[in-house]
Amino acid sequence: MNDTPIALARWGSFHVGGRTTRVDGEPVREVLFTPGSAPAVLDPNGTYLVGGMYAQVMVPAPRRGAVPLMFWHGGGLTGACWETTPDGREGWQHFFLRRGWEVVVSDAVERGRSGWMRIPEETGGIPVTLTVENPWERFRIGTGTPQDGALLPGNQFPGDAQSWANFIRQTVPRFTSTDAMTLEAYGALLDRVGPSVVVAHSQGGFFAWRAAQEWPDKVRALVLVEPASTGIAEKAAALRDIPVLMLFGDYIEGDPRWPAIRARGIAFAEQVRAAGGSVEVVDLPTQGIRGNSHMIMMDRNGDEVAVLVQDWLARRGLWA
Amino acid sequence: MNDTPIALARWGSFHVGGRTTRVDGEPVREVLFTPGSAPAVLDPNGTYLVGGMYAQVMVPAPRRGAVPLMFWHGGGLTGACWETTPDGREGWQHFFLRRGWEVVVSDAVERGRSGWMRIPEETGGIPVTLTVENPWERFRIGTGTPQDGALLPGNQFPGDAQSWANFIRQTVPRFTSTDAMTLEAYGALLDRVGPSVVVAHSQGGFFAWRAAQEWPDKVRALVLVEPASTGIAEKAAALRDIPVLMLFGDYIEGDPRWPAIRARGIAFAEQVRAAGGSVEVVDLPTQGIRGNSHMIMMDRNGDEVAVLVQDWLARRGLWA
After folding, report:
1. Do the domain assignments include residue A116?
2. Distance of alpha carbon A194 from alpha carbon A214, whole angstroms
3. Which of A36, A116, A174 lies at the smallest CB-CB distance from B206?
4. What is the predicted pLDDT for the residue at A1?
5. What Gene3D superfamilies does the record point to (chains A, B) (predicted)?
6. Partners of A252 in the beta sheet?
7. Residue B44 belongs to what domain range?
8. In a domain, B92, yes or no
């Protein structure tokens, strides 16, 4: 825990984006919302607002970042993953705020404080909820189950039982059917906040690539932490003026999925370079930063990686 | 917007509470979480952690509140309702933080950053999602529909089209089947944070009464903003040493539900007094504070009401 107080010039939150949809012909019913309250007539017919997105903004005093720094979380999580670690340390939200960046932390559409509405009616799908066991191997933390407690050798994720429960409590249902409305909402967020650096993790990397290609004038740099996917090859040239840093953690070669995901990311980086762009790919172990799981910002050495990101941004003239 | 920076000694978040449940015998399937990623084998069998709760803590420097001040939101909303107003002003979270209170803002179980899991399997119900139209009359803001824009005369809620969309984007599915696990999680929150003042709105008032009766040593005072329900009559004596302030807004007499809800609250206050407790009921119009909807903390005159709460807490020796 860092004991130095943080001075905020301002902070707060807002929602952006979303679209309306109509429902008609459903029966009106009576609902007792709270025991001991009075029943209410609930008419489910009418207008629904779906696909809005929550964002929290903190502006430090003094401010040293040239533009705001956005944090886009991965699938199955919310913005809370940047706000704290499972073992209660400060998150990357603090790290960059303390260095004078305006930080904007959002909850992706249909997750967290963005709320969710009329799923699957509007999206054609229902979300996947994860077991306690699922992310243990999939996020390259341990083998077997978390109940066994067998971490991968040297793994930096706080994998004790209490921390694991804290991590799982951060997880939320993850949608595979809401990508279009999520991308749209990220566009609304960039519109509202203005040109920003986007730090994106995992599934967030998919949206970050696509958003940068769709609205290149709104993205000043991309920091992609183990992006789960790539941008669109035919639109590689749209990324020409946006410096990109791509980070990958440890244990990738032994994983059933990450070698392929990483290889696709690197192939896309080549396409962006061929189109005149600049993409730097950093495999953390080659920099002597070892033991990172997929949840790099939560790992015990997460601040070492944050320093690397901070230095990269400063070298690009985005911090003074 | 208040332009004075806020100094935070610390801030962050955590999750508390929840319990595990098992699922067995379901088919394993393959899921492509992100387009362009690698498919993952998803085993839905295993352990689930349900009923956890998210809380954000901000500790100002210097600190003047004797204990932390918790904010428990109402049904269909998240903690964001304390963080901003639909027209973008600072919320009560700011108001009390600026006065030196440690503020703890939670998202109730199955809402916001608390996530939701295995609904209805674990709770026996599915949540209610609200139309854009529904809260307009029910929250005593206007007549007809928000699209007509007919505010109740003198109403202080920011009811212009843009603000209304912002408010609706804050709403989330509201559960009527998760009360037991929500109360349990509030207990875990009080355990974690320690004795606190609880400011609760609407459905949150139901949980605040019950939590104070269940864990009276953890609650130093209750501020109930239009509580939707009461505590348990047989346990009125448990509230003997907890000062209570109950607030009601305007337009109650013309509403189909609020006269009954308010009357029950006042009857319960009598029972608490009869058992030796102290409950102060304030109908804001009788104090010259007029035009308040059900969403008092969001109303244009919300800070006037916050001043009244602040003074009440200071008179009880909870602020220096």
Report:
1. yes
2. 14
3. A36
4. 54
5. alpha/beta hydrolase
6. none
7. 17-48
8. yes
How far apart CA A251 and CA A164 sit, in angstroms, is 19
Backbone angles phi, psi at A18, to 5 degrees: 95, 165
Total domain count, chain A = 1
- Chain A residues near residue B6 by CB distance under 8 angstroms: 7-8, 11
- Give the tens place of pLDDT for each residue, A24-75: 999 999 999 999 999 999 999 999 999 999 999 999 999 999 999 999 999 9
The per-residue pLDDT for range B147-169, each reduced to its tens digit, is: 987 999 999 999 999 999 999 99
Q: Supply the pLDDT for residue A2.
A: 73
The alpha carbon of residue B279 is apart from the nearest alpha carbon of chain A, in Å, by 19
Residue A41 main-chain phi, psi, to 5 deg: -80, 125
Rounded to the nearest angstrom, the minimum Cα separation between A116 and chain B is 6
pLDDT in tens, B54-77: 999 999 999 999 999 999 999 999
Looking at the fold, whether B31 and B93 belong to one and the same domain comes out as no
Cβ(A50)–Cβ(A183) below 8 Å: no
Cα separation, A82 vs B139, whole angstroms: 34
Report the CATH number at residue A101.
3.40.50.1820
Q: Which two tokens stand for residue A149?
A: 């407690």
Cβ <8 Å between B12 and A83 = yes
What does the pLDDT read at residue B1?
Answer: 54
For residue B251, give how far its alpha carbon lies from the nearest alpha carbon of chain A (Å).
Answer: 16
Using only C-alpha atoms, what is the Rg of chain B?
20
Task: List the 88-117 stretch of B: residues with Cβ below 8 A of A.
Answer: 88, 90-91, 94, 107, 112-117
Residue of A nearest to B202 (CA): A34
DSSP A116: -
